[in-house]
Amino acid sequence: MTDKELANLIYPNITKTPEDYEKIYPKRDLKEGAVVTRFAPSPTGFVHMGSLLTTLIARKIPDETNGVFILRIEDTDQKRSVENGITGIVDDLNNFDIKIDEGALSETEEIGKYGPYIQSNRKEIYECYAKSLIERGLAYPCFCSAEEIEETRKIQELNKERIGYYGSFAKCRDLSNEERAERIKRGDPYIIRLKSPGVYEKKVVFNDLVRGKIVFPENDLDVVLIKSDGLPIYHFAHVVDDHLMRTTHVLRGEEWLSSVPIHLQLFDILGFELPKFAHLGLVMKIDEETGQKRKLSKRKDKEAAVSYYHEQGIPVEAVKLYLMTIGNSNFEEWLNQNPGRDYNEFKFDFKKMSASGSLFDLEKLINISRNYISRLTAQEVYDNALKYTEEFDKEFYDLLIKYKDYSINMFNIERNQKKPRKDYAKYSDIRPYTWYMFDELFDKEKGEYDWQEIKDIEEIKKILKLYLEKYYNEEDDEQTWFERLKDLSEELGYAREVKDYKENPDKYKGHVGDISMVLRVAMSTKSQTPNLYQIMKLFGKKRIRERLKKIK
Ligand code: GLU
Fold it and tell me: Is 21 exposed, middle or buried (0-12, 13-18, 19+ CB in 10 A)?
């Protein structure tokens, strides 16, 4: 029986040939130097920060070169796929403003001429290439059971030999086609394996964009190409897809580096042009308990999930800026020299990536975020807060809508100045920092009044009463307003100036700072707020009276 006959026995319904697919997916007509990248997640319903970094770069380089960015869904390991996993990924990318040029848009829709972009819909394509390899004597059906493979592994371990299906361990490699055909007809379960032409003692040289030149032994493993469920294994799908989608640059995690010899071999025997590869280092963190560096973990770290930032209301731009700082060692310097410039104007360089991985520091990200929000206009903060609360805090959203101008003015307090106030690191911080500005929330959310130096409630009431009767004037400018606080202080036996009090503490009950603190706490219950004058100005007479009346 010839190899061709065997191939026909295994794939009788596959009529297309690799040449047909070359025509269906022709070379892309792009400008010289245009880069085609892809993000190729499994639909596990979760995008990891490490993948987001890869994705950002995979989006940025086509942007820099008039290229194409593809979203390909790798769902060939169906056990790992979750329901609506694709939508989850698409939502994460949307939330981060990462647009795709081609690829999956949802579980059922996609865009682009090089699809299908969901691997489980590409079964026929993989089968075509598997068939062609069988025809050429470069692949074969393997009937070994999981138990047999395990048995071989144990023997290899015991004898301290390389683990895997190769050489004399590859039991099905040298079966005759007759025997293969007989077993297939008999209904024995099988998978398709590569008949590796590699020699382990020989070397292959490979140039990684991040790591430079790497020398590997040639692959001699008869790796699985098609599993028992008829779907391909990662290696095979990667090579077929990245060829047919005409990917020029494969950006992926360093966990794939050790498989490169398999991929080089597959590209070679299939006659495919080799794309460029960049294996990106892991994103790590310092473990809180052990103090040791470890991989940022899906399971242990809330900040590993891209959705965390969206849920917290950490601005997308801040996350991107931070990721770029860990992505390229010269980015931070560039940003300092070009404050406020869009990160898209920065030219990404693989050589400035750390091969050993990058350290993720949530504190630093939060800091970048705080600075970022502080530089926005009040209107921008308002718009973003609206977007955030619409999804996560409907009650607060309604208040922001109802009191639009008031809210914008509130966000404007201490904003338009050289060193703007940095209260908010995320949009979810706004409510805890500003609830007292809204009557609807004040009674509900106020706890204890945080009185400071002056705690005696009778004294407090006396101060507030006199203030309202004699010293409060809605029209006052800030200076006059403060002068009047000083007058009030003096009338009640407090020093007009802190310095006077310090020089002669026995002479006074306290000083003007203690008096203004009483006013601040009375307005907000809090001892720390933005500029009190501006808050009171925003409140207006009626609300001020109401707030003071509540002190009993
Ligand atoms: N599905 C693979 C992963 O999630 C993709 C690797 C690649 O980009 O080729 O690791």
Answer: middle
